Amino acid sequence: MPDSSAPSQDVDRVASALVTVLPALQRSLERHVGREFPHPRLPEGQLALLFLVEEREGITVREAAEALMMKPNNASALVSRLTELGLLERRQDTADKRVAHLYPTATARERLAEARLLKEGCVAHALHTLTDGELDALGAALGALTSLNLRLRASAG
């Protein structure tokens, strides 16, 4: 993969802006959704695990820990808590009884769908307030942000 030919001060400026704006964007979105979500708010780690299990049904605890870049014992604690809350189901592997596969419950599916709709609605509302140029710039940046995320995940592994 070739290195960027952008001057280092441009790269530093973009890095600084992303480090500032991305967490702030996430916090703003969570605040908006938190006001409208009719269920108790789950901690971010639990939500991340639920979204992952919904996306990759049957994932093991170890695989989930790797995907979320956390220690297996921390992932296991999240699994236990979500199971207690009735949001996650563990199913024992037929070949290896020590391995459990994870599945979202019907309640979890409903709540994740509600949360996703609230987030998408909030973002769509804000996007409608942008200029055409701003919207085009964001659309053009999506591929680059996805690539950046993949590279950060790979280097953190």
Short descriptors:
globular, 2 strands, mainly alpha, two-stranded antiparallel sheet, single chain, 157 residues, 6% strand
Description:
Helix 1 (8-36) packs across helix 5 (106-127) and helix 3 (61-67) packs across helix 4. A two-stranded antiparallel sheet has the order 1-2. It has helices spanning 8-36, 44-55, 61-67, 72-84, 106-127, 132-156; strands spanning 88-92, 100-104. The protein is globular. The longest helix is centred in the N-terminal third of the chain and has 29 residues, at 8-36. It starts with 7 loop residues before the first helix and ends with a helix. It has 157 residues and is mainly alpha-helical.
What is this structure, in a nutshell?
The mean pLDDT is 91. Helix 1 packs across helix 5 (106-127), helix 2 (44-55) crosses helix 4 (72-84) and helix 3 packs across helix 4 (72-84).
Task: Describe the protein's topology.
Elements: H1 8-36, H2 44-55, H3 61-67, H4 72-84, E1 88-92, E2 100-104, H5 106-127, H6 132-156
Antiparallel strand pairs: 1-2
Instruction: Give a count of the beta strands, DSSP E runs of length 2 or more.
Output: 2
> Uncertain runs with pLDDT below 50, 5 residues or more?
none
Quaternary form: single chain
Structural class based on helices, strands and sheet pairing = mainly alpha
Quote the beta fraction: 5-15%
Overall outline:
globular
- Which sheet architecture does the biggest sheet show? 2 strands, antiparallel
First-residue to last-residue Cα separation: 18 Å
